[in-house]
Fold this sequence. Notes:
Number of helices: 5
Order of helices and strands: EEHHHHH
Amino acid sequence: AVVSTQSTGNKTMDTSVLKMLFVSFLWGSTNPLIKKFSSGIEHCSTIAEKLIFLIKRPFYLLSLLGNQMGSVLFYLLLGSTDLGIAVPVVNSLTLLFTAVVGALLGEGKLGPKGIAGTILIVLGTGLCNLNSSG
């Protein structure tokens, strides 16, 4: 089977889809947080100053840890999911979560083009998953 499934009662839950959503959420939500919590680093002139700057910011470190956890989970996901499905789905949904969380953090509103792009991402991800299970 291309996508692993787990039966729970009368419903079949696609665990690979949940894993892909979780990895996408981890990456997509931590990207704008890393950006937010590293704000001001541009005033550091040396690598040592930049390292000290970042190490002194616990929210940056937690965001980075969450992002790296996503990377480890993605690596594990690739062992049980079709590469041709997992990579485009996770990458496209990561962009979706980045746009939404970034907008929530005040990085900018999702305009009509952003909303249309978000809808297309969701539809494309759904089509990829339908194609893999059919």
